Amino acid sequence: MHIDEVRLKELLRKMKDNNMSYFDEFYNTTKVLIYSNIYSYVKNQATSEDLLQETYIKFLSNLNDISEEKSIIGFLLTISKNISLDYIKKFSRVNYGDDYEYVSEDSSLIDKDLILKKIRDILNKKEVDIFILHVLGDLGFNEIAEILNKPLGTVLWSYNNSIKKLRKELKL
User: Fold this and answer.
1) How far apart are CA 84 and CA 101, in angstroms?
2) How far is C-alpha 83 from the chain's CA centre?
3) CA 41 to CA 39: how far, in whole Å?
4) Residue 13 near residue 67 (C-beta atoms within 8 A)
5) Helices (H), the chain
6) N or C: which end of the chain has fewer CB within 10 A?
7) Percent of the chain at pLDDT above 90?
8) Dist. CA 39–CA 135, nearest whole Å
9) At a CB cut-off of 8 Å and minimum separation 6, what does 136 contact?
10) 3-state per-residue secondary structure call for 48-77
11) Among candidate residues 160, 161, 164, 108, the one with its CA nearest the CA of residue 136
């Protein structure tokens, strides 16, 4: 899955000009990456879907304040991360017992959920973030370093270390 940042900026400009018919394309282009980012924090499908919608509501409410000079994906990832962390903080003291997962009609999300769960079991949080951004988000390492505010060398080392761990655990 490749996300064309140039096309996203074009869609953003059109949405800023009150042509919201382009939002569907924008949403469909970015939703899997943003959902995966949210799920990596909250680890619950229903909650992730709710927070995904909240992310896009916040995005749309700040539409005119979004700089076209910066990464739109980075902006969405930051919103989704903050919303996820706020949710975790708000509900971390409440224990509902076992979280339930329901089956979505979108089987591609279920498959990705299972894959992401296995990846999270193997990798640490920093490695999961970098892996998701590179593999699912199709972002380059320079973009990832900028989004995460980490040195490029750290991002590259972490990604390579992640691949080694996954190969070892999955016996690839």
Assistant:
1) 17
2) 12
3) 5
4) no
5) 5-16, 23-42, 45-61, 72-91, 107-122, 125-131, 141-148, 152-170
6) C
7) 28
8) 15
9) 1, 32, 33, 36, 112
10) HHHHHHHHHHHHHHCHHHCCCCCCHHHHHH
11) 108
Length of the chain as a residue count = 172
Q: What is the pLDDT of residues 21-46, one digit of tens each?
A: 999 999 999 998 899 889 888 888 89
Contact between 45 and 113 (Cβ < 8 Å): yes
CA-CA distance, 149 to 62, in Å (whole number)?
22
Question: What's the first-to-final CA gap in the chain, in angstroms?
Answer: 22
**What is residue 104's three-state secondary structure?**
coil
> The tokens 């988000």 sit on which residue?
137
What's the one-letter identity of residue 146?
E
User: What is the pTM for the complete model shown?
Assistant: 0.64
Going by C-beta distance under 8 Å and a sequence separation of 6 or more, which residues neighbour residue 119? 128, 131, 166
